[in-house]
């Protein structure tokens, strides 16, 4: 059995799903730390072609991830990812969304303080929570990396999580040097945190495909240590 390797909150023994990746630099950091990416699925909303246009190093990162055994999927919407044909039967120990952003409603002249912009972000995050909670293994966790200064605090992520049937396990500060070479369009000089969430109910829902009907089976959840 291969030796377990860790970086920050993550381990090579976990089944990890990354959503909303940009240039896939975060996925690369995990893969290099683990020495392999066979335990990872990394996804983006953008197509492979769009990534090549938007990010100068995306293609090289994707090739390295695939060479290391990572499953890479494109065109994955966080609202519907639990029903994606390549994900519907898979369960994950950790699902990660770094810096969720719904896009600018009025182009780059948009203000993050606009009520409509905040509402769009909240809809995105709640959609992620609702979909991700259906994809967790027993004791699985959902992670979000998020800015902690206004107006981003107006997203009220913990409340959104509670509305989706999740509860907050832990909050930790995010330091860019913890994940070396990670690139993001966000300002890494800003205070940020990683929120770790788990299902609120005393059971996790596992979905099984049976005669083309989706059946939800409730399985008692054992005590899970952090």
From TrEMBL:
Signal peptide start-end: none
Domain 25S rRNA (uridine-N(3))-methyltransferase BMT5-like: 17-178
GO molecular function, one term: rRNA (uridine-N3-)-methyltransferase activity
Cellular component GO terms, alphabetical: cytoplasm
Record GO biological process: rRNA base methylation
InterPro entries in UniProt: BMT5-like
Source organism superkingdom: Eukaryota
PANTHER family xrefs: PHENYLALANYL-TRNA SYNTHETASE, PROTEIN, PUTATIVE (DUF2431)-RELATED
Protein's UniProt name: 25S rRNA (uridine-N(3))-methyltransferase BMT5-like domain-containing protein
Organism: Rubus argutus
